[in-house]
Amino acid sequence: MENCEKHSHEELLRRVKNELPTDEVLCDLADLFRLFADTTRVKILYLLFESELCVCAIAELLGMTQSAISHQLRILKDANLVANRRDGKTIYYFLADDHVRSMILQGFEHLLED
User: Which of 27, 66, 83, 107 has its CA 20 to 30 A from that of 45?
Assistant: First the structure.
């Protein structure tokens, strides 16, 4: 184990402490990552990465009820990860913005790197 008496890291600690986000922001970030901890939500996000879809199409693709999909979409929409548009009586869901697309891509890139 390194002996901290031989060097000073006060400047480093001060710099890192100044860059540390508030507890509220870090808590929000942790909550965002928790959303990705549910396999169904990740599957929905991946499907929407490919194309905008209605609830019934997502339900059919995942072999789940429309009610279960609607529940997960509501969670994702409340977190601003997905958005929707209405076309007549049908509501289509899509990824909310390019940040969500980037998070999914970077997650896959991380998993697939050697």
Answer: 27
- C-alpha angle 15-20-26 in degrees, rounded to nearest 5: 170
**What's the CA gap between 58 and 44, in Å, rounded?**
7
Q: Is pTM beyond 0.90 here?
A: no
d(CA 38, CA 5): 45
Amino acid at 11: E
CB atoms within 10 A of CB 75: 16
Check: CB of residue 43 under 8 Å from CB of residue 82: no
Per-residue pLDDT tens over the stretch 18-34 = 889 999 999 999 999 99
Q: How many residues does the chain have?
A: 114
